[in-house]
Specification:
Layout lengths: L3 H26 L7 E2 L2 H17 L3 E6 L2 H14 L7 E5 L21 E4 H11 L7 E5 L4 E7 L4 E8 L1
Antiparallel strand pairs: 1-4, 2-7, 3-4, 3-5, 5-6, 6-7
């Protein structure tokens, strides 16, 4: 159980990380999330863990291919078309900016990324901008956890998209 000082330090680190994410997405990708609602960090952390548990244990659909920007755009279009019936549903979106923080700089980092809560339709343009320079997985999941996808790139420049709808 964390004491008052540990809780205040943790809350301050989360607050600063959110500010850093807002600033970095605007500075490096011209994505403004300053007016977006952030998901509570504990919920964000819990759901983030569930995504990878689901990928390891559940039946999901996936495909992978060598990195090619045009092919990746087409596959992202496919994913958003596949989930078009959920366009107005609110999702948790984990921007990949989380992954480029280094100890040697003044960047902040958390053990888990911070999610923002937005309608699925708003995610597409953000994903399109962030996919070109993925620093970590891009994750989009529904609040009720009945659909979502993870877009990732490995060290060999292979892109994988794992998705589910159940």
């Amino acid at each position: 159980m964390e004491n008052r000082l540990e809780r205040l330090l943790r809350e301050n680190k989360i607050r600063l990380a959110k500010k850093q994410l807002i600033d970095d997405l605007m500075k490096y990708h011209e994505i403004d999330i300053s007016e977006k609602e952030f998901v509570d960090f504990d919920s964000s952390k819990k759901e983030h863990k569930k995504v990878y548990e689901r990928i390891r244990t559940d039946k999901i659909k996936s495909f992978s291919f060598p990195y090619d920007e045009e092919k990746m755009k087409a596959k992202i279009d496919f994913i958003f078309d596949y989930f078009s019936k959920y366009e107005e549903k609110t999702v948790m979106f984990y921007p990949s900016a989380f992954g480029f923080y280094f100890k040697s700089s003044n960047q902040l980092y958390l053990e888990y990324p911070v999610a923002i809560s937005i309608p699925l339709a708003e995610c597409k343009q953000m994903v399109m901008k962030l996919m070109v320079e993925m620093h970590d997985d891009l994750i989009v999941i529904s609040r009720k956890y009945n659909f979502g996808f993870v877009l990732s790139e490995n060290e060999y420049s292979y892109v994988s998209i794992e998705y589910w709808d159940h």
